[in-house]
Amino acid sequence: QVQLVESGGGLVQAGGSLRLSCSASGKIFTINAMGWYRQAPGKQRELVAAITSGGSTNYADSVKGRFTISRDNAKNMLYLQMNTLKPEDTAVYYCNAEIQYGPIPWQVRDYWGQGTQVTVSS
Asked: Most buried of 15, 97, 100, 102, CB within 10 angstroms?
């Protein structure tokens, strides 16, 4: 079994910063792409930022220049540094990872964390 656990969410004033962490554990052979998604009330889940195993990144236009995604492959950790937060960043943030759970290349599955709430007050 594989488990993703997020931490670091909370309440912050506009202009403030938060750092989200995601820990992957369990039967992991290798982790491919990882990403952060968010879902605000009444809206669809959207990609915030993603990072490949090699470190290539991409960001939603709404967070470019404010958020930074990073990962520690040795520790199976994913991070999201969020600066200059805005009220519209308020959402539940989810960690996502494509994980190979066995030695055969097709033994790959998408996993999700349980989410962590980020609330930005104006």
From this structure: 97
Cβ proximity of 90 and 40 under 8 Å: yes
pLDDT at 36: 98
pLDDT at 83: 98
Which one-letter DSSP state was computed for residue 29?
S
Distance in angstroms (rounded) separating the CA atoms of residues 99 and 38:
20
Q: Kindly tell me the burial class for residue 104, based on how many C-beta atoms sit within 10 Å of its own C-beta (0-12, 13-18, 19 or more).
A: exposed
94/38 Cα distance (integer angstroms): 6
Q: Which of helix, strand or coil describes residue 83?
A: coil
Query: What is the rounded CA–CA span in Å between residue 119 and residue 42?
Result: 15
Tokens of 24: 């992957």
Question: Would you state the structure tokens that stand for residue 23, as one six-digit string?
Answer: 């820990």
Contacts (Cβ under 8 Å, ≥6 apart) of 86: 14, 120
Count CA atoms closer than 13 A to 55's CA, side-chain side.
2
Residues 26, 81, 64, CA angle at the centre, nearest 5°? 120
